[in-house]
Design goal:
Number of domains: 2
CATH class of the largest domain: Mainly Alpha
Distance between the termini: 47 Å
CATH superfamily of the largest domain: GntR ligand-binding domain-like
Helix content: over 70%
Oligomer: single chain
Shape: elongated
Strand content: under 5%
CATH architecture of the largest domain: Up-down Bundle
Number of strands: 2
Strand order of the largest sheet: 1-2
Structural class: mainly alpha
Number of helices: 11
Radius of gyration: 23 Å
């Protein structure tokens, strides 16, 4: 019972601190009082404070410096998305919705990549095509090269927010990619789609890159739908 009370109290303390951060009462760079002072302030034991701070640190909201104390961190896109990503990952029915989200994100990512890509980034994209070709020839599914292609496009787009959002979706879709790629003919079609998108990026054809990515992801959406009906 004592452990249950500590668990409940640390969750309440963490929630209270999160509210104070959201309200602006606690700002990035602020140093929190020592554990003892926090324990007295909340009327709890130091272990409860310690657990609350540990949970906040895992969320990326605070950071501890040995001998200096615990400080409020500035929010980042990653710290906001990681808990959201964890929740979504528990829902197996969201695969199709995530691909729809990618349709919105990656069509514009492809267009931006066509506009902004550097010669070095283009060479890396082309390298994923060769890697995928070798993997397919060896009997593989080209999964790693597939994921790398989309990640490189996001880097070439030059928008960190879009890149992080795509990374969130890609991380959760990593569970479904091996299943859809195992469908007969899909790996070769994926490689063909990638090659066409890469050519549009090479030509800096924004409209073409956008259209080809839409075709590619709509195909992925149909493949997933077939599997769900099977």
């Amino acid at each position: 019972m004592a452990e249950a009370r500590v668990a409940k109290r640390y969750e309440e303390i963490a929630s209270s601190m999160i509210e104070r951060i959201h309200s602006g009462e606690l700002r990035p760079g602020d140093r929190l009082p020592p554990e003892r002072a926090l324990a007295e302030s909340y009327g709890v034991s130091r272990p409860a404070i310690r657990e609350a701070l540990r949970s906040l640190e895992m969320m990326g909201l605070v950071e501890s410096h040995v001998g200096e104390g615990t400080y409020i961190k500035a929010p980042t896109l990653s710290s906001l998305m990681d808990p959201f990503s964890l929740v979504l990952a528990q829902n197996a029915k969201l695969g199709g919705e995530l691909i729809e989200a990618r349709l919105i994100l990656e069509t514009e990512i492809a267009a931006l990549a066509a506009r902004r890509r550097t010669p070095e980034q283009l060479a890396q994209l082309e390298e994923t095509l060769s890697d995928m070709e070798r993997d397919l020839a060896a009997g593989g599914l080209g999964i790693e090269a597939d994921a790398r292609f989309h990640a490189l496009l996001a880097e070439a787009a030059g928008n960190e927010s879009l890149r992080m959002m795509l990374e969130m979706c890609a991380g959760m879709l990593s569970r479904t990619r091996p299943i859809t790629q195992a469908i007969k003919g899909v790996p070769r079609m994926t490689l063909k789609d990638h090659a066409a998108i890469c050519e549009a990026v090479r030509a800096q054809d924004e409209r073409g890159a956008r259209r080809l990515m839409r075709v590619h992801l709509n195909r992925a959406l149909r493949n997933l739908a077939k599997l769900q009906k099977a």
